[in-house]
Each structure stands twice: as C-alpha cells, then as structure tokens.
Amino acid sequence: MRKAVFASGRHGSFLKFLLAEIVIITFFFGSLEAFLVEPTRIWKLPKPSQRSTHHHSGSQKIIYASSSALLSSWSTLAVGPRILINERFPGLELVYSNPDVFIIRNFLDDDACRDIIEAAKMKKMEPSPVAYAGWTQDIKELVELAAKGPVAWLALLAAWFQIKDSNDASQMDLVVHSLQNYAVIFVVVTALIAAFTLFRAEGLKSLRTSTSTTLDDISDASSGTRKFVVNASKLFSDPAAKHPSLSTEAALFEAPTVIRYEADQVLAPHFDANRSAETEDANRGGQTLATLIVYLNDVNKGGLTRFGRLLATNNAADSNENYLTIQPKMGDALLFFPADANGRFDERTEHEGCPAIDEKWIARIWRHQNRVPPPFGLSENALSTL
Fold it and tell me: Is the pTM of this model over 0.85?
C-alpha cells in the first residue's frame, strides 16, 4: 500500500523523491552544481560601495555603485587600455601607473578657481541627493541566486512534507507541488529582495554629506567655468589631431559639478563607474570613462583624496598613509579612469574624500562614452561657443 511505502519504507521513497527532483533541477537550472553552490553564494554579498555624483537640472544626486556578489567576476575580466589623452598637456604628471592616475599642476589659475566658487555660491549649493547605481544588476543577481538555491530548496522540502503521508501520492504529485511551491516562494522572495534593495539605498545616504551644484553656462569667455571646460576638452582631445574639435570632446562631458566640503563632511569610498551604465546611465552618456577633478582652494588640514586600493607611492600626500593620497592644492587637477576605453568597470579606482577639517572646494567633470544630452550635459548652444 502507498501508506506503508511512505510510513515504513520512507527511506526508499525519499530516494525516489530525490531522484525525481534531481531530474527537475537539471531541467530547470541547467546543472545540479549550480543548485548546490548558489545557496552559499547568496549569503556572501558584501555591502554596496558608493559611486560619485550625477546631476539633474542644477541639482545632483550621488550614485552608489553596487559591489554585489558578481563584482568579483568583473575584476577577473581583464581591464583594457584607458582612453587616450593629450599626454603633452602642460603640467601633466603620472603619479600612479596601472591604473593610471595623473596630477595636472596649475590646470586652472587662481582667478578661474575663485570665479567657479563664486558662481556656485550664486547658483546656491544644495545637499547632494543620493541614488543607488547598479540596483538593476543587484536585483537581477540576487533573484538569480535565490532562484537557483534557497527558493528551489524550500519548494522541494515543502513538496516533500505536503505528500509524505499521502495514501495516493505519486511522483507526478511531487513535481506539481514543487512547481506550485516554487512559483509562490519565488514571488515572495522577489518582493523581499526589492525591499532589501530599497533598504540598502536608504542606508547609503549618510555616506555623502557635502553640498553641490552644477554650472552649465559657459557663455562668458572669461569665466572660470568656461576655462575649465576648454582645458578639459584640450586634455581629452585626440593627441594626433592637428586641429582638435573642442566642442566634439565637450559633448562627452557632464556639465561641471562644484562640490563643497565643510568641517567633518566626507565622501565615503566609492566608484565613479557604474556596472549597469548601459541601462541606468543610457540617458547621460553611458559609462564614465574618466574623472577630472580640480581643487579650487588650498586645503592644509584634512580633505585628502584617497585611493584605498592603490598602495602609497612617493607622491602620497601624507607619509603616514598606506594608500595613494592626493593633497588638494588650488588649481591642480586630478585625473583617473574609472573604466577602460570600452566601458569595462575598473574596481581598482575606488576612492574617497577624507573628512574635511579646512573647507574644501572642488569642481568635477565626468567624461562619458557617448554624447551627454541636456540637462546632464552641455547644450548645443553652449557647445557651439567653443
């Protein structure tokens, strides 16, 4: 009798059950190995790391790039060459190689720096809003991990308990119950993952405490903002071109963002590239290929820029630092490459703004992979003046 099989011969029945479910697992998940391994991976997700700021119509939002379970898989892919720059640009110094980090001495003169600060003050500085970049990739990865592991296991165990004492249960009943349970549990887990992602995004807000604004008016030929855009265009122009087009290069820029750090304000370790740039940054030029930061004032105490994955060199701002640090100096610029020329994320460029003691002002331009349309980039009218 069926009852006797499940009660007295439960071990044999359970083996049949497992055999049937292995067939189901192999059919739906592709391999038993994935089913067995994925449950361990889902618990190893680190906290997301942060990505730097984007802006929108004069305000901006900080973007946090996820460092989810598959971030390590990105690091195993070879990062290709960075984009080309004009390496004959005056004052250019290589302070770290592979990944390349440059300092550009006297990139802007003192008057230009002061003018940018005043323009930002006139436009009004606002707290930088926070967004969570890479959330689409994180949700996708978490759902895939759950589907191949915990959801499947729970569905199978629930099916076993549902039919183990049944008088007329069959192997087909096992399959039907497993699939029904899987569908229900999958929906619940997906909703929990969405809630978890929202919770992570909320938790990132405290990691950015500065104020900021964007400057997109470059009509005044003598303004510091225009000088910043012009010099950046020359820096990124094709070194082989006899007559480089400044407007063509500037079309790949986000409009300059000005950021102010007062005492104790920080920017936690973050990435400027986005693993989900093709989706999340499609309307702002795609992947960020280069970051250009100009220090607008001298900062004697605090406010260092630190690259927490690059060991210190002789160019480190503080001899006590174990990692590459840059001391803000009025007019100097910092240049690095968050992704390679093809847009591949480079996690080695993680960096942070250390706590400010003295007030710190910086201006930043992001050079993207494609044209950055307004309101994120410069307008066609603005570009035509270059």
Answer: no
